[in-house]
Every structure is written in structure tokens, then in C-alpha cells.
Amino acid sequence: MGNSSTFKFPIRLHVVKDIDVSARLRLFSGSTEFIKPFVQAAKQLEEIGVKAITSNCGFIVQYQDIISSSVNIPVFTSSLLQISLVYKMLKEDQIIGILTADVSSKGLGKKHLKAAGAKDIPVVIRGMENAEDFKALNENKGIIYPEKIKEELVTTAKELIKDYPKIGAIMLECANMPAYSKFIQEATKLPVFDFVTLTN
């Protein structure tokens, strides 16, 4: 998401500052005390002429309506916004498997699905909070080993499908995951959706 060569059209990166780790946790839990910087960022991007705005964390979906209402251009905050579309592509008895950064008590849950307009869609969720190398990537800690992260994501996806054979597509919540979408798709033989498919 933060690499401009990911997309075949011009992009403008904008960093929302003054959000430390503890603030991020409160923001992702649903607290609106830090929404103002995101709204200001959206307005600044609109003023400089961008035609659409996205973000790099699926948990921001909780603020989709607030941010999109603050500007006059399209805003799509989370890859989870694709859930309804993907579900319509599947057979009636199939479900969507979601890989997320965190599915613990502070992680992805019903409130996020509701905010994405997907509260009644059958999904199963698997978190990466216990995957050592992915966690290091997600928390910007230590040395990053892409091959190990790939192995963790592919293994987790395969285990999820083994546990839930009715999965017909995989959704990646976290913007640190799309670099591995191709490998997940090849390993599972299922379509994979992420921030890149959303933005494109």
C-alpha cells in the first residue's frame, strides 16, 4: 500500500501523524477521539485534487461513514468493503474466509463487519496475532523476513480452508498482506481479495 509502484495510476501518500501505538489501539477499538486527524487528512487530499481516498488498515472501516461524509470524493477505507460483492460471486452454500492481523478481543469482529455492510454475510475469520514474523512486520519491530511471512500466511490460509471447506474466496484485511496474495491464491486455488483489488 505504501509502495507507489503497486498501482498503475498516480497516487499521493499522506501520513496521518500523532497516532502512537496506544492511540492506534484505541482508534482500532472504535474510539472516535482520534478520528479528527483522519478527517483532516481526507480534506487535505481532496483540496490538492486527488480523485479518491483509501487507507492502509482494514480496521479503519469503523470510520468509513464519518470520513466519506467529510469530503465530496469517493472514500474506501477497508478491503472489507468488498465482502458483499465477493459473496454475491459465490455459490449459495459458500462462505468467505478472512485473514486479519488480529482476531483477539481487540481485533477484527462483528462491529467491523457491520461497518463494512457485511454483518449478515457468512464469514470465518483467522488472525495472525500469533504468527511471529507477520507480527514483527505489522508492528514494525525487528528484521523482516518475507519468505517466513509468506509461509505463515499461506499455512494459515490452508489451515482455514481445511477447517472450513465451504470457503469459496479469501479476503485479506490487512494492508501488509497483499504482497503475498499471489502465493495464497496459488496455494489455495481460490480467488483472493485485498486492498489492491479494492483500490484498482
Please give the radius of gyration in angstroms: 16 Å
Number of helices: 9
Task: Write down the overall geometry.
Answer: globular
Euclidean distance between termini CA atoms? 12 Å
Structural class, by secondary structure, is alpha/beta
**How many beta strands in the DSSP annotation?**
6
- Strand adjacency order, main sheet: 4-3-5-6
Biggest sheet: strands, sense, closure? 4 strands, parallel
CATH classification, class level of the largest domain: Alpha Beta
The number of domains is 2
Low-pLDDT segments: none
Q: Determine the CATH topology of the largest domain.
A: Rossmann fold
What does this structure look like?
There is one protein chain. Helix 7 (146-163) packs parallel to helix 8. This protein has 2 domains: 4-76, no CATH class; 79-199, Rossmann fold (3-Layer(aba) Sandwich), CATH 3.40.50. It starts with 20 loop residues before the first helix and ends with a helix. It has a 4-stranded parallel β-sheet with strand order 4-3-5-6, with helices on both faces. Strands 1-2 form a two-stranded parallel ribbon. The mean pLDDT is 89. The chain has helices at residues 21-28, 35-47, 64-68, 83-89, 110-115, 132-138, 146-163, 181-188, 195-199; strands at 53-54, 75-76, 95-100, 123-127, 167-172, 192-193. With 200 residues, the chain is of the alpha/beta class. The protein is built from 9 helices and 6 strands; from the N terminus they run ααβαβαβαβααβαβα. The radius of gyration is 16 Å and the shape is globular.
